[in-house]
Design a protein that fits this description.
There is one protein chain. The chain is mainly alpha-helical. 62% of the residues lie in helices and 8% in strands. Helix 2 packs across helix 5 and helix 3 crosses helix 4. The two termini are 31 Å apart.
Length: 156
């Protein structure tokens, strides 16, 4: 059972027990981290490694320098250079000289990169949809509301 439980007086009575924010935060943090990790590993298939998926997702929002990508992914610039090199070798990214700084390059996603990213996103969505299909309608409604709330919290 989860750490957010009801006592005998409220269990089954349809009366939700008040949940302390600190306790709920800890439960949600663990659940979100596990779900994210599982989604990355179970649903990535052979299409893209998690780091490649993340970089292509960032590049879909617009071109970036290696440094910007590295900061966004919280990795060292040499590690990001290797990731980008693999993506470029696959034809999923391209590099152009930086317009204002000859020491830098600007990395962009290619049409092939967009295609593989869309395939990987569809693969992940299909995996999650299968898992959600195993739940009853009431539990899916709860998760739909939770998704709305989490998105609202993260947009502030």
């Amino acid at each position: 059972m989860s750490g957010v439980e009801r006592d005998d007086a409220t269990a089954g009575a349809g009366v939700p027990e008040p949940v302390e924010p600190d306790r709920l935060a800890a439960e949600l943090r663990v659940a979100i981290m596990r779900a994210s990790r599982r989604l990355r590993t179970e649903a990535s298939g052979e299409l893209l490694k998690p780091a490649q998926y993340s970089v292509l997702g960032a590049l879909q929002q617009g071109s970036r320098t290696i440094g910007q990508l590295a900061r966004g992914e919280m990795v060292a610039a040499p590690s990001m250079t290797r990731i980008v090199q693999h993506l470029e070798d696959a034809g999923w990214t391209s590099r152009q000289p930086h317009p204002d700084d000859a020491r830098q390059v600007v990395v962009s996603i290619t049409g092939a990169g967009r295609e593989i990213l869309q395939r990987a996103q569809a693969h992940r969505t299909a995996w999650l949809a299968r898992r959600l299909g195993e739940l009853d309608a009431a539990d899916r409604r709860i998760l739909a509301r939770a998704a709305e709330l989490l998105q609202g919290m993260c947009s502030e």
